[in-house]
Amino acid sequence: MNIINTIFFNTLKIFPKRFIKIFSKRYVAGFTLEETLNICKNLNSKGFALTLDILGEHTKSAEEAKNITNQYQNLFESIHKNNLDANISVKPTHIGHDLGKETFKSNLSILLDTANNYSNFIRIDMESSNLTDDTLSVYSDLFKENENLGIVLQAYLHRTLKDLRNLSNENLNFRLCKGIYKESSDIAFQRKEEINKNYIKILDYALSKQIYIGIATHDESILEESYRLIKKHKAKPKNFEFQALYGVPLDKWYKRHFRNNYKVRLYMPFGDDWYDYSLRRIKENPSIAMYVLKNLFKK
Ligand code: FDA
What we know:
Bound molecules: dihydroflavine-adenine dinucleotide
Helix content: 40-55%
Order of helices and strands: HHHEHEHEHEHEHEHEHEHH
Strand content: 5-15%
Largest sheet: 8 strands, parallel, barrel
Oligomer: single chain
Strand order of the largest sheet: 1-2-3-4-5-6-7-8
Number of strands: 8
Distance between the termini: 29 Å
Number of helices: 12
């Protein structure tokens, strides 16, 4: 972030919450479950598959972590009742990793049982690098008995291709994203060109080995390269999907994906905890924060 963006971002933090809420409406699928389910039905009818994520992270007590786990169980039930084409993503620290790896693992295990009951799927979002080892080890342990479990790998980490090679098995299903947390240069690429190069290397490897990959990016140069690699490896649509965050304007690409019969999955964060999430989105892409200002002046 350059200095002007930093100042702008810091200024936003002192804005009243209701202003940030205007911005949130674009990136948060809903503030309540009911609102979110209605949006999901509409997006399913347009051909999008979905991933639901209850906003929040770094749960501080075992009760709270259990409560969030229950909310996710109810979410599986709602998906089923509403006949939605949607699965779930969950953050380790949201279901208790700050209280220890075992708390995270036992809550995830409960969620996997629920996912199994509804023949659904759950993916573990990847958080900052101090959690990568724990996340991958819990994933590997639970995957042995529950193949409806997926993982996320981050292209900015130097270790990722090696991790993918270690994880590879015929039913691996992973999402590849660039990575959103601040990481140091000894473990993570810092420059966009380097991150993109690593992203493409990993994508190339996954497609060549027919490992199921969720290509999660809004970067048009990577999307273009994905098309080239899909062609190069004669990859079948059953082996990949495109993923994007709800609210990011990529209509041209969605049309192209649908024309090719490629699956598109939108990541739908929702719930009460919209404020921090919105600030993160603004920090990630300060230029779109102008949207807040434009809306302010429109009202
Ligand atoms: P990049 O940041 O280079 O952006 C490419 C273009 O898209 C730019 O022009 C930019 O302006 C635009 N753009 C990017 N983000 C935008 C936004 N929010 N709104 C509007 N325009 C935007 N990270 C992580 O560490 N762990 C995780 O589990 C996940 N999960 C995840 C799921 C899905 C479905 C996606 C799409 C992303 C994630 N991420 C994530 C976030 C990811 O790591 C990354 O930070 C963002 O996707 C931004 O990177 P891009 O690949 O889009 O490229």
